[in-house]
């Protein structure tokens, strides 16, 4: 995913989802592999000016996270249209927020995401929101925060999003970010599912504290980030509905 600020730039619809057999590593450090059923999905942002939702659906993609917000004030000008286009085809849809931890309080940014996206509802079509945590594009890599301050910031975001919606957000990040900026914190993984960014071949290793990712962003194809949900189509519906 990329920042945008300052850069102009049914019966269940999953009943026929294409499921595949992946071979993700079963733990962050063991290197062992285990077959797992998965469902294909994507994530998009304002950088995708046009998305062929019908074509993605035809190739087995069944879910999407759409970038909604960044920092405490920025809103994607394409968010509403992208959500509408995805829902019209049948996608399960969630919203994600690009974190700016050094700019404003976590609770403020969580409220911004919920105010724009509407949060989460147990309708079987809406995925919980996601917090996009990445190294700063310039300056100090961890946004000027110490590991303890960054851990507190992320924990505050998770807590505020849960307070407003009843669900924890996913945490989108890399092992490197989690190690360098949160000193391998293990408290947040107990509260929020992991969306792993890892484009280097097989999945893993992933950050400390999580037994496995819930979603894996595996690479980019056709200018769109490609993801897999680690579970069956029915598991994905359950995740959207109840967690």
Describe the structure.
The protein is built from 6 helices and 10 strands. It is α/β, with parallel strands linked by helices. The chain has one domain (36-241): TIM Barrel (Alpha-Beta Barrel), CATH 3.20.20.80. Helix 3 packs parallel to helix 4 (147-165).
Strand order of the largest sheet: 2-3-5-6-7-8-9-10
Q: Can you identify the CATH superfamily?
A: Glycosidases
Number of helices: 6
Q: Based on helices, strands and strand pairing, what is the structural class?
A: alpha/beta
Instruction: Specify the helix fraction band.
Output: 25-40%
CATH topological fold name:
TIM Barrel
What distance separates the N and C termini? Answer: 24 Å
Q: Assign the CATH architecture.
A: Alpha-Beta Barrel
CATH C-level name: Alpha Beta
Order of helices and strands: EEHEEHEHEHEHEEEH
Overall spatial form? globular
Radius of gyration from CA coordinates:
17 Å
Which percent range describes the beta-strand content? 15-25%
Low-confidence spans: pLDDT under 50, at least 5 residues? 6-13, 18-35
Number of domains: 1
Tell me about the biggest sheet?
A: 8 strands, mixed, barrel
What is the average per-residue confidence, as pLDDT, rounded to a whole number?
89
Number of strands: 10
What keyword list fits this structure?
243 residues, alpha/beta, TIM Barrel, 8-stranded mixed barrel, 6 helices, 27% helix
How would you briefly describe this protein structure?
The chain is of the alpha/beta class.
């Amino acid at each position: 995913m990329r920042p945008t600020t300052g850069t102009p730039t049914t019966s269940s619809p999953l009943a026929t989802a294409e499921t595949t057999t992946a071979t993700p590593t079963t733990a962050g450090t063991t290197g062992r592999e285990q077959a797992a059923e998965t469902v294909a999905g994507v994530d998009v942002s304002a950088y995708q000016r046009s998305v062929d939702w019908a074509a993605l659906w035809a190739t087995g993609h069944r879910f999407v996270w759409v970038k909604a917000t960044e920092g405490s004030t920025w809103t994607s000008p394409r968010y509403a249209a992208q959500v509408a286009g995805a829902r019209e085809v049948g996608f399960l849809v969630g919203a994600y927020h690009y974190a700016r931890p050094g700019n404003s309080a976590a609770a403020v940014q969580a409220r911004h995401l919920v105010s724009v996206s509407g949060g989460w509802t147990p309708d079987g079509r809406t995925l919980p929101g996601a917090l996009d945590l990445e190294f700063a594009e310039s300056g100090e890599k961890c946004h000027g925060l110490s590991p303890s301050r960054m851990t507190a910031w992320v924990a505050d975001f998770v807590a505020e999003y849960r307070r407003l919606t009843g669900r924890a957000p996913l945490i989108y990040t890399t092992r490197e970010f989690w190690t360098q900026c949160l000193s391998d914190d293990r408290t947040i993984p107990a509260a929020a599912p992991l969306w792993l960014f890892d484009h280097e071949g097989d999945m893993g290793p992933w950050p400390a504290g999580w037994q496995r990712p819930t979603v894996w962003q595996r690479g980019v194809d056709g200018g769109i980030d490609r993801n897999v949900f680690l579970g069956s189509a029915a598991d994905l519906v359950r995740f959207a509905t109840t967690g």
